[in-house]
Request: fold
Amino acid sequence: MDEKKLKVLAVDDDMINLKLLKTMLMKTPNVSAVV
Reply:
């Protein structure tokens, strides 16, 4: 049970990190232009 919970939390963290990266990329015109 604990391991499964930890895995879910890790996935949630990854999703949050991806969202933060996307928002940061959107805010910076140079990077967004490259991507």
